[in-house]
Design brief:
The complex is a heterodimer of chains A (about 200) and B (about 160). With about 200 residues, chain A is an alpha/beta fold. Chain A contains 8 helices and 9 strands. Helices cover about 40% and strands about 20% of the residues of chain A. In chain A, α1 runs parallel beside α7 and α3 packs parallel to α5. The longest helix of chain A is centred in the last third of the chain and has 13 residues. Chain B has about 160 residues and is of the alpha/beta class. A 6-stranded parallel beta sheet of chain B has the order 2-1-3-4-6-5, sandwiched between helices. At the A-B interface, α3, α5 and α8 of A face β2, α3 and α5 of B.
Chain lengths: ~200, ~160
Amino acid sequence: MNRMSLADALHVLHTVRRNDQVVVSTMGAAREWMKLGTHELDFIYAPSAMGAAPSVGLGMALARPEKQVIVLNGDGCMLMNLGCLVSITAAAPPNLVLIVCDNSVYEVTGQQWTAAADQVRPAGSVVDFCQVARGCGFSAVFNFENIEDWRRAAGDICNRRGPVFVVLKVDPIPGGQVPKSPAPPAERAAKFAAAIQA
Amino acid sequence: MFSGAQIVSELQRMGITHVVWLPDSTLGQWEEALSSAPGLTLVRVCREGEAWAVAAGLHLGGARPLVMIQCTGLFESGDALRNALFDFGLPLFAVIGYRSALNTGAPDSARTFTEPNLRSWGLEYRLIDAPEKLGELHAHYAACRQAHRPGAVLIAEGRM
């Protein structure tokens, strides 16, 4: 399967992201997103409760309906909190975009396969995150396996009425580490709160 | 012990904007009142750990959320609670149904571990185990909010 590099996929998002859009990122995506610069509406969710980033984003989207909230999640994180997909579609915030960067592994712990990875599943038993999202009530669902398709669609997707669910098939990054909080988390939370509420 | 109308009245007095909940059989009786209350939004989650993360997002966004779960869900919530309250320092507040609290001698491990669990997290809580104690909900919430610290209220459940 052709997969994008995570860095390229996030660079596309960075290019189309509007200045008033919130980006919540976690795990490997947070680590790579930080390399692209800083923004007062970036919420680097590190340290995290693994799997909780979409729920944090849901709360932000409900509190600030005038702001588009984009959540950068991982596939391992997604598996840890699949129920949040149902919570999101029950609340149905039109301003929430959930992006799953799917590399099939727990990257930061040394690239062990997730239980959803084709490599460890019986032949013919495929976990399809997009189908899961549809089954949980998402109607705007997108899957991208190459960077050009993602580049063409990213701007529209990040500005469309949601909730929106996106899977980006990306390569794992060898040696990818747990993201480090760029400053004391409570201090960052206070600054972010001030920015999102401004 | 309390009607939905009584609880809604207290939450409105507290200025709560969102109740993030996963009910038990006691809290669940408040559903109609909570879901129809002006100025209150009921956010339904699928697992209690989600509730703390959703409440964290709401708080950061400027809302005044309340987590409402059973004590068994408190046990499930550990990592999400730890992250929101202690990593990010968010002063979230919870109403927690205290299963079997009124059934002295009941062989229910949920009853055994609830208060030690809250103490282990360093969460300051009040126990509401009689109708005349309902006012402690507002009082404790106000004190926690003023001190910018998290807190909880246990609603005793079981036979009166």
